[in-house]
């Protein structure tokens, strides 16, 4: 196969009323900054960045989903479940987020099959964010 991919961004739909609060949440809580913001007929687009990570906020009139209360109740089929941010020190990040009032949905936990530790939080809209500490084995590698 000759296709080659790299990750560019995650897109999140939200209502215009939630846009400023969501920009503030990602800025205050996870250290993202606004890279660009522009309007298109009926929509506002905001690109948030933190290092190589980009999130596209798309403000359109839509139905709001109820926030997720724990990671197991979030396993509904046929929808994007979460996006993942790699962190160097999961315990330090979890401590800092707790100090900011962010509640964990799950973890920290170790996924032995990946040799990786993870935790889950949600943003102000209820979107699930996985935080993953580097593992000892590459995902998809076969155990010895």
UniProtKB/TrEMBL annotation:
Record carries keyword Metal-binding: yes
KW DNA-binding (keyword) present: no
Domain VOC: 6-134
GO BP annotation list: L-methylmalonyl-CoA metabolic process
Keywords assigned by UniProt, alphabetized: Dioxygenase, Lyase, Metal-binding, Oxidoreductase
GO MF annotation terms: dioxygenase activity; lyase activity; metal ion binding; methylmalonyl-CoA epimerase activity
Entry superkingdom: Bacteria
Protein name: Catechol 2,3-dioxygenase-like lactoylglutathione lyase family enzyme
Species annotation: Actinomadura citrea
Lineage: Bacteria, Bacillati, Actinomycetota, Actinomycetes, Streptosporangiales
